[in-house]
Every structure is written in C-alpha cells, then in structure tokens.
Design brief:
This protein has 518 residues and is mostly helical. Helices cover 52% and strands 6% of the residues. Helix 10 packs antiparallel against helix 12 (286-297), helix 17 (393-401) packs antiparallel against helix 19 and helix 21 runs antiparallel to helix 22 (495-508). The longest helix has 30 residues, at 307-336.
Length: 518
C-alpha cells in the first residue's frame, strides 16, 4: 500500500487501493460509517451514467414497495448510493439494509462502510477489506481486536472467481502504532461454551428431565469441559516451567545474591546511581540506604566467569514471566468457572420462595413462566399482579416494550400519555425480595414509541419522538411482538388473556414493522 503519512483519510486510503475495489471498510461505530461515507462522497464517484440510472431505478422500485424508505434522516444515503458508496449498520431499517445489500451484490457499490455485524452471518465478499482502526469499545473499555474478530472481518477479502488473492488493509493511527501486525491464524481464540442458568432453564429441567439427567447436564456441559481441559494444560505447562527453573538454580554458586556476586553488585550500583539523583536525595531514608549500599560494595567481588550466571538469570526472568502469565490465566479460569449446580439450586430456591414451584412440581406461576424465554419472572409477575390483564392495550404495549431493554447513555424518547410507575414499583419490590437485577431488566424509555405505534402513529412520527435510529425502533417493536407470542402460549386455557395479547400483537405487526411471510 502506498505511504500517505500519519493518519491517512479514508479518501487517501481509497486512492491507494483504487485498483482493488470493491472494498468493505470496517469501522466500529454507526456514526463513523455515515461520517466516512459522507467524506468519501465529496471526492469520489465510482459509477457510470448507465449504472447511476440502474441504481435510481432500483431505489424507485424499493420506495414504491416501502413508502418513506429514506425518511427524514437518510436523504444523504439516497444521494451517495448513486455514486457507488454506501454505509450499513444496525440502525438502518431492514428495508434499507436489504437495498444496500442488493446493490452491493449487483456490484453497484464500490466502497461500503460497515460495522462488524456485516461480517457475521452475511456472505458478501469483497476484493479488499479495510480497517479504519483495530481498536474497539467492548462495553467496558477500548481494546485491540481479538484474533478471531480480525479474521472474521478480514476473511471477507477475496471473491471466488474474481480475485486471485484477497487484500486486507489497516489504517494505522500514529497514536497506536502497535495496533496491527500481531494477528495470527495460529492463535485464534476458541469459542467458549456458556450455560446460562435462567428461571426458564430451571423450570424446563424440572419439568422435562430426571434428577440424573439434570446432574449430567450441570456436570458435563461444554463450558465445564473446556475450562477443565484448559486448566489441565496450564498445570502441565506450569510443571514444566518449575522443572526448568529448578534446573537453572544449579548454575549458581553459593555466593549468588550476595555482595560478592557480580550480578548483585551490578544491581546495587544501579540502585546507588538512582538514589543519587536530585529528586530522591532529600527523601526520608535515602541517605541511610546509600550508606548501606556503599558498605555492601566494600565486600570483595568474587573472581569468576559471570556470563553463565547472567544468562541463567535472564532465562529465569523469562520463565518467571511466563509462569506469572499462566498463573494469572488459571485465576481467570477460576473466576469464570461456574458452579452450575450451585447456580441451579440458587435459582430453584428463589422459584420456591416465590411460589413458582413446590419441590419439583410446577405451580401456576411456574407453568406460565415455562413458556417464556426472556425476563421470565418479571413478565410473569406483571401478569399475575394485574398490570397486563384488562389494562388499556396501548398501556400494555408500552409496558412490554421495556422488558429486557437497556437504554444507551444518550437515548431519549418524548414522554407518552401513560404512567408506568406501577411497573417500576413492582420491579423494585422484586429486587427487595431477592430477585437478581439481571432477572428484572426493564426500562420505561421505549414505552411511548410502542403505545404510539399501537394507536396508529406512522413510522415517521415515531422518528420525530426520539433520537433512536430506524433499526433500533424496528428492533424494539419486533422483540415485543416475539414476547407477545410467548405470552399467548403461556396463557394456555386463559382465553381472555390470550385474545387480549393477540389483538395487541396484530396491531403492532403492521406497515414498516411487519416482516413478509411471518
């Protein structure tokens, strides 16, 4: 790749690789995909007039099927599509994502700025992949990409039948010069097994499995197997390191680490020079320490060939660092190791305390929760405490939209006409009674969107109520529709509740939110 100086712009990057397009240009925020696409569109236009005409034709056909496709926020995307440039992220509506994907498949998009979700489950290869950076925010901190994350995206480079090789480029930020060059297919992190002990897990096992089958599942699942296997390997490696460290001890004479030893004297002299610096001279105890070192250095140095000892000490240090890393990994495994039987019994005890089960027998609440797969306790309590049954349907839609929703720091929605205080009161009561926080995840924020949609608002009106993007709103209401289906199944013979929930679901499942064929 041509050198462009520190922190090359996306336009400079594309200029350097223009003979190897189309390119998937990966970045790690929605806003950055849009910003870079806009930046590139000011300097580049990849399409001939006949290609532009074809893009406009496809856009018109899609708009005829999906009125308001670009809405008030995506006018710029409509423009840059005719230049062979696009962006793709989870904030786009499904119809817009589908349009971008179709144009890309038809080779009418030459540079597609996308988040890493584009590399998961969507088979759209490119001649090149570009990384705007190899650092990402993982919800807790900024960190470098894992090997498997890098290769999942980099692996999109190279189209069978078109490209003899796939090319991968990384835009190097001068602040983080070490962010690339360390990825190795030999070191791709393994997929880790994870068994989640939720209320539904416990209820399902109690209902469908014998005690013996439950114990086997808790003791022999993939996560336990992987942890045990890695733990055994680390113990073997630690034993090997201990043997090597013990063998190195035989290199040293009895005077090692005494003032007569060359290595010890070198350390003392280095410390003495450090203590002589102005910024340390006046510190308490420094003068006494300098005198102590001078007295130690009066000891005669042993005459010997110290190079074997120096080399052995260097090897000792390297082995000790490796040992320390392995020991840290063992501690991590220990902290990640789950006592699944303990977790299972803890949730079982909670369900007994809340009258979901009596021993292995499922009580009415337990039978209801058995059919739920998200926030089972919270949803069951909403129903059994009267906050769903016989409530105004728009209010029910508002309540259920917030189940399992965690708002972003800057997410905002205009307040709706319904008070949701009773739900928050119930949630706090459950927490006080010992229900874990992760079993009571709920937010009032998306409620006004769901109730407005139930009452017939247009999708454009929903967008005017919030700073959430189209894809986020779509996801909120689709998830609620799925939850409503679960509640319908859980209602069983309760026809009144089942019809109430079904009517809400059918009112929500319309227009832009509806998925053809479902």
């Amino acid at each position: 790749m041509a050198q462009t100086g520190g922190n090359p712009s996306c336009s400079e990057v594309i200029n350097a690789i223009q003979n190897y397009l189309p390119a998937l240009y990966f970045t790690f925020s929605r806003g950055k995909t849009e910003l870079l696409a806009d930046e590139l569109s000011r300097e580049w236009d990849f399409l001939y007039q006949r290609e532009k005409a074809r893009v406009r034709e496809i856009i018109k056909e899609t708009e005829d099927t999906h009125p308001g496709l670009f809405g008030p926020r995506r006018g710029k995307l409509k423009q840059i599509l005719t230049q062979g440039i696009a962006y793709h992220h989870a904030g786009l509506s499904p119809a817009l994502k589908d349009l971008v994907e179709r144009l890309y498949e038809m080779r009418l998009i030459y540079v597609l700025f996308c988040t890493e979700t584009f590399a998961v489950g969507v088979n759209f290869p490119a001649a090149s992949t570009v990384f705007d950076t190899c650092r990402k925010w993982d919800g807790r901190e900024f960190r470098g990409l894992l090997n498997r994350e890098f290769f999942q995206m980099a692996g999109r480079a190279g189209r069978r039948g078109f490209d003899p090789v796939g090319r991968v480029y990384v835009r190097i930020d001068h602040r983080f010069p070490d962010q690339a060059g360390f990825y190795s297919e030999e070191e791709i992190e393994p997929v880790r097994g994870r068994l989640v002990i939720s209320p539904n897990t416990v209820l399902s096992l109690l209902y469908w499995k014998t005690d013996e089958e439950i114990n086997r599942l808790l003791d022999q699942n993939l996560a336990v197997y992987q942890n045990n296997r890695e733990g055994r390997k680390i113990k073997e490696d630690l034993a090997g390191l201990e043997e090597k460290l013990a063998a190195l001890e035989g290199v040293f004479c009895p005077q090692v680490d005494t003032p007569a030893c060359y290595m010890m004297r070198s350390k003392l002299k280095k410390e003495l020079r450090s203590l002589a610096r102005k910024n340390k001279r006046g510190r308490p105890g420094m003068r006494e320490r300098r005198e102590e070192i001078r007295e130690l250095l009066k000891t005669a140095q042993k005459k010997c060939h110290h190079r074997p000892c120096t080399e052995a000490r260097r090897k000792q240090t390297d082995l000790a660092e490796r040992k320390s890393r392995l020991e840290r990994r063992m501690r991590v495994l220990g902290s990640h190791a789950r006592d699944y039987e303990r977790d299972f019994n803890r949730v079982w005890d909670l369900l007994e305390d809340m009258s979901y089960v009596e021993g292995r027998k499922l009580l009415p609440r337990g039978v209801f929760a058995l059919h739920l797969h998200v926030q089972e306790i919270l949803v069951t309590e909403l129903v059994f405490n009267g906050l769903i049954r016989d409530m105004p349907p728009a209010l029910v839609a508002a309540i259920l939209a917030g189940v399992d929703y965690v708002p972003g720091r800057d997410d905002s929605v205009e307040p709706g006409p319904y008070s949701l205080r009773e739900v928050e009161t119930l949630r706090k009561s459950l927490l006080r009674s010992g229900v874990p926080e992760n079993f009571c995840v709920w937010s009032p924020l998306p409620g006004p969107l769901a109730s407005a949609w139930y009452e017939g608002a247009s999708f454009e009106e929903l967008l005017s109520m919030t700073n959430l993007q189209e894809g986020d709103i779509f996801s909120i209401i689709r998830r609620e529709i799925d939850l409503l289906r679960q509640i319908e199944r859980a209602a069983g013979d309760d026809t009144g509740l089942r019809r109430q929930i079904e009517n809400i679901r059918l009112r929500l499942d319309r227009d832009e939110i509806a998925i053809p064929g479902i």
